[in-house]
Amino acid sequence: MHIVVCIKQVPDSAQIRVHPVTNTIMRQGVPTIINPYDLFALEEALRLRDTHGGEVTVLTMGPPMAEDSLRKALTYGADRAVLLTDRFFAGSDTLATSYALAAAIAKIGEVFGEPEIVFTGKQTIDGDTAQVGPGIAKRQNLLQLTYVSKIRELKLDAGKITVERRAEGGIQVLETRLPVLITMLEGTNDMRRGSMADALRAARAEVVTWSAKDAGIEDILKCGLRGSPTVVKRVFAPSPRAEKAEQIELQPAAIDTADALIAEIFGRLPALETELVELHETL
Prior knowledge:
This protein has helices spanning 36-52, 67-76, 94-112, 132-140, 196-204, 254-268, 270-282, and strands at residues 2-6, 9-11, 17-18, 25-26, 32-34, 55-61, 80-84, 117-121, 143-155, 160-167, 170-177, 180-184, 208-210. The chain is an alpha/beta fold. A hairpin with a 4-residue loop joins β9 (143-155) and β10 (160-167). The longest helix has 19 residues, at 94-112. The protein is globular and about 70 Å long. It starts with a strand and ends with a helix.
C-alpha cells in the first residue's frame, strides 16, 4: 500500500504579528512549523502503514527551507519526502496550489507507485480555507472524505475503507472504494514520538526535490500569481471593542445567577424579551 500525505510549512501562529502601518503579516523572525492539522493526517497514515504494510510519502510545496518540515516528518517515521519548489509557485492561492500538488501526486504515482490513499489536514492555520484537499481530489478524480474523525476499517483486498465523518448534528459513517482522498480533523489521534533510528535516518535521507518541470506540470500559467484568481486585499488585526465585559456576581444558588443574567440581557435588549414572550404564546 502506498499513502501520500500532503503537509505545509506554516508560520507559528502564536508568534505572528501584523505590521501596524502596512497591515501585512510580519514573517521576519517568526519560526515555522508543520501545519498542526497535517500532523493528525500524518499520524493516521503511519498507523495504517504499520498495520497493513506499505510506504508513506510526504509531499509539500514551498521554498527550499520547507525541506526542514519534510525532514521532521521523516523523523516521525515517514518513508520518503518530496519537495515541490520553484519560483513559478510564488503567490499561489488554493486553486494554483491544488493544481501543482495534484500534478506532483500524479508524478509520485508514476515514480513510486500509485497511492491508494492521499491524506491532508482539514485546513491550514495560515489560510484556513480547507480548499486544497478537495481541490486535489477534484483534479485527480479521487473520491473524497472530508472532516474524518476516525478510520474504522480498511479492506485492502476489497479496495474499501470505512470512516467516521463529523457532520452537523452527529457522526456520519461512510464506506467508499479506493483510491480516496481524506482530510483529517484535529484531535483524532496523538502524534507519536520519533525514534532515534528515524531521526538519524531523516538526517541522512535524500529529500526528492522537483521543479515544476520535474513534476510534469504542463501549464505554468496555472501556477503562482498568474494562476491565482484570489486576491488578498489586506491583512489586519481586529480592532479592540470599545465596550467592556461586565461580570455578574455569583449568587448562592445557580438559578439566582441565571435569573440575574437573564434580567441583565433583557434590560439591555427589551425587544428580545417581547419577541420571546410572543413566540411562547404562539407555541
